[in-house]
Amino acid sequence: MAVRERDVLQLGASCGDLIVRGLNYQRYLAEGAFRVLQADAGVGFAVWSLPDPSESYCEPVQVFAAGAPNPTPAQVAGLMAAMPDHPLGRGRQWLGWHCQRISELVCLPAFWETPQWTDVHGFAGTPGRYPTAVQFGRHSGRIAYLGLHRERSDYSDDDMPLLELLSEMLRPAFAFRGGMDAAAHRLRQLSGSDDPERVLTQREGEVLSLVARGWTSVHIGTVLGITERTVRKHLTNINEKLGVSNRAAAAAAWVAMYRDRSVTFELTMPEGT
Q: Strand pairing of 59-66 and 142-150?
């Protein structure tokens, strides 16, 4: 168990770092979970758009697989259509858990005969008869989760703490990244004009949102994986686009833009960063 826990910690730390920095993490997470969490029949990682948790409709934004072929567009459409009637989709259950064995919700032998099993778990032709889901929380209108599949036996009570550990490690990173993406998108809207050269880029929006919270250039660079010099360059571009002369004025412009539009924004620093 100690070896497996170490592997989960390494996967969570490395993947969390990629998520926070805004780098591609999806394939790394899926393939790492396939190996570390011993999902011998394959892993699926999906990000779903879920703007309103009271709504039954959601839309896949990203779908990646490991240990099995990636689904085709037609298979993704089938997966999306099947989710409202899937045991996890009923009553918005996927918003209330971190890790969930499907065997705890339905009788598996009977479930294997349903279209929901075929469309959500069996589309790749893998014998993943024992699925378990790991959820990473709903952030900025999106929800991310892993679908883990085993061929011959279910995840045991000894396995579940390892899945919970990965979920707990990555939730703060997903929350941080979701907040950063939302803030950068909103800043681009608020700074928009007829001149496209005056619209903040994604990275400039990220930098400004952290400057407004009082972060130093060194701290910003460390978290976003860029140099202090690059942070200063982004700040120069931000000042020019906003028509201000220094970082304090840029931060004040952020506050003014949000105050004038009655918009609030909370940004939680990922643990261990």
A: unpaired
Q: Where are the domains of the chain?
A: 2-174, 191-260
Answer yes or no: pTM beyond 0.90: no
**Strand duo 99-101 + 59-66: pairing:** unpaired
Query: Regarding the domain delimited by 2-174, which CATH topology (the fold level of the hierarchy) does it fall under?
Result: Beta-Lactamase (3.30.450)
Helix (H, G, I), strand (E, B) or coil at 53: coil
80 confidence band (pLDDT: 50, 70, 90): confident
Query: Per residue in 218-246, pLDDT tens?
Result: 989 988 888 999 999 999 998 888 888 88
**C-alpha distances out from residue 112 to 78, 107, 164, 255, Å:** 16, 9, 25, 53
Cβ contact 142:50 at 8 Å: yes
Given this structure, which CATH class describes domain 191-260?
mainly alpha
